[in-house]
C-alpha cells in the first residue's frame, strides 16, 4: 500500500500523522515552513521565547487530554480570572467570596451569571447549529453596561480575535465551560513545545520540512520542484484560505491579529492574570513571566499585548503606559498574524470541491487546539475506515 500523504504540519496535520502512525499506517507529511506547528509556534530572540501570538493551552479540552503528554510539557498555569484596570475578577467557582470584591459586579450581573452557569451543567456542545451569535446572546441577558462592556465583551473579543462577536453563541457556552472548569497554561518551553512533542512521537524520516505543495489530487501531490508523489490518499491539513485556493475557491479574508512583545525590568511577581483593555483595538496584555519565568532571561520580564491588526507600537505603548505606571517597556518584536482565526461555518462548497481529498484543519470544527486536534483525528479515522 502506498503511504498517506499529509499536506501541512500544523496541529491538525500532526494529529492526523500520529493517529495513522498509531494504527501502523504509512504516511509522509509535507510542511512548507522550516518548522512544524503552523499557527502554534515560538521563536527565540535575545534570550526571550516569543509565541506566534498570545496563546494558551486549555488543559480541559478532551483532545488535549487524549493526545498530549501534559506532564512532559511542564505546564505553567494562569490564575483563573482576568484583571480590568486595577480590579480583579476571579473565577467565581474557585473564589466565590471574591465575586463582590470588585465594584463593577452588580446583583443583576450575579443573577445573569448564575443563569449562564446553570446552562453549563452537563455536556455543552461547541456547535449546536443555532444561528444566534455570541453578541446577541450577551445582549439577551440583563448584564449591567459596565460588566458587559468592560469585562464580558472585551474578554471574548480576545478569545475570538474579533471586534463584533459574530461567533456562535454555543461556542461562547463551550469556551466558558472550559475556562470555568479547566486551566489555561503555557508549556515551560513556550507553545512550540506542543507541536515538538507531537512530532517526537513520529518517525523523523516521514516528516519533510521546507516542502511547499503546489497542487493536489485525491491520490497525489505536486511539490514546488514539479515532482509528483503518489499516495493511497491525501489529507489536506492547511488553513482555510490555503485550502480554498488549492481547491480553486475563494474565501473571504479573516481578521488578523498582532502581538507585541516587550521586555521590562520588574522584580515583583504579580498574580498571573490576563489584563483586559478595550482601547485602541488593544484586546489584552499580560506579564508572561509572572506565569512562566522560563520565557525571559534571568532578571527580565516579558510582556505580551495583543491587538487586532492595525495598532501601532506608539498606540499600544500609550495604553500600556497608563496601566503599568513606572514600568519602562522596550519592544522586542511585534508579530503580525494574518488570518488568525476563522468564522465558524459549514464550508459546504469547500467540502464539495475536495472530491475525495480528505480535509483537516481547525476551520472544520472551531478555531482552537481542540478544533485542530479533532479535525486531524477525524481525517485519519476517515482514511483508516476506508482501508
Ligand atoms: C493569535 C492566535 C491566538 C490563538 N489562541 C489560541 C488559544 O489561546 N488557544 C487555542 O486553543 N487556540 C488558539 N488559537 C488557535 C490555534 O492556534 C489554531 O486553531 C490551530 O493552531 C490551527 O491548527 P491547524 O493545523 O488547523 O492550522 P495551521 O496551524 O494553520 O496549520 C497549517 C499548516 O499548513 C502549512 N501549509 C500551508 N500551505 C502549505 C503548502 N502549500 N504546502 C505544505 N504546507 C503548507 C502551514 O505552514 C501550517 O504549518 C490561536 C490562533 C492564533 C493565530
Bound molecules: flavin-adenine dinucleotide
Q: Are there runs of 5+ residues with pLDDT below 50, and where?
A: none
Strand order of the largest sheet: 8-7-16-17-18-15-19
User: In the CATH scheme, what's the topology name of the largest domain?
Assistant: FAD/NAD(P)-binding domain
The count of domains is 3
Return the structural class. alpha/beta
What percentage of residues falls in helices of 4 or more residues? 25-40%
Which shape, going by the Cα principal axes? globular
Average pLDDT number: 94
Rg for CA atoms: 21 Å
CATH class descriptor of the largest domain = Alpha Beta
According to CATH, the homologous superfamily of the largest domain is: FAD/NAD(P)-binding domain
Report the portion of residues in β strands. Answer: 15-25%
Keywords for this entry:
single chain, alpha/beta, five-stranded parallel beta sheet, FAD/NAD(P)-binding domain, 387 residues, binds flavin-adenine dinucleotide, Polyamine Oxidase, Chain A, domain 2, globular, seven-stranded mixed beta sheet
Description:
The protein is an alpha/beta fold. It folds into 3 domains: 4-40 and 192-251 and 343-386, FAD/NAD(P)-binding domain, CATH 3.50.50.60; 43-77 and 185-190 and 255-337, Alpha-Beta Complex (Polyamine Oxidase, Chain A, domain 2); 91-181. It has helices at residues 11-22, 62-67, 107-119, 134-140, 145-160, 169-181, 193-200, 240-246, 288-291, 313-323, 348-354, 369-386, and strands at residues 4-7, 27-30, 42-45, 48-51, 57-58, 75-77, 81-84, 87-90, 184-187, 207-208, 213-216, 220-223, 228-230, 233-236, 257-265, 274-279, 282-287, 300-308, 330-337, 358-359. The strands form 5 sheets. It has a 7-stranded mixed beta sheet with strand order 8-7-16-17-18-15-19, sandwiched between helices. α1 runs parallel beside α12. It is globular. The termini are close together. The structure holds flavin-adenine dinucleotide. The site of flavin-adenine dinucleotide has 35 residues, from α1 and α12.
